[in-house]
TrEMBL record:
HAMAP family: Non_canon_purine_NTPase (MF_01405)
Protein name: dITP/XTP pyrophosphatase
Swiss-Prot/TrEMBL keywords: Hydrolase, Magnesium, Metal-binding, Nucleotide metabolism, Nucleotide-binding
Gene3D superfamilies referenced in this protein's UniProt entry, alphabetically: 3.90.950.10
Amino acid sequence: MKIVLASNNAKKLLELQALFEPLGVELVTQGSLGIPEAEEPFGTFAENALAKARHAAEASGLPALADDSGLAVEALGGAPGVLSARYATLFGQPKSDADNNRVLLEQLAAFPAPEQRGARFVCALVAVRSAADPEPLIAMGRWQGQILAVAQGEAGFGYDPLMFIPSLGRSVAELSAAEKNVQSHRALAAVHLAAQLREVWHLG
């Protein structure tokens, strides 16, 4: 089944394609179909993912899959949250991974101890058969860790170099793609969504 991915992030496409390939799913990015990005006006990951999935389905006429994911830092009341991708812009800085990471470290300067820097990556995955699908499939995944004081690792993207996973003894950016695809918040959400795709859409 061909499903439109409501994202133009090449690394996200690779992650999700690997996770859903066993179901016989072929993901195509909305950008390859000339579909512009949707607005993300909501305050929760699930609502934004649903809005993006509906937008892509309506524009393409195909089933659509969307994720909304980000970082929730306990000491910052859950920020950056749904604004993770553009967190630096809230402080007058450019939108980039490097600037987001730098601003995050600045905001956590008053919380130096590792036990004060608890955080989790959160992912909401939503699949719809059409824009009017009354039964969207929604799955959540969470990956608990701590924010490092200094970036570690070269792999991944976003906040991966700052997110330390105590159970693994490494940052997310120090994991291979294969390791990340098993451990990550997106992988956990994908496992839940895959079960729903099998049950409700009869895939795989």
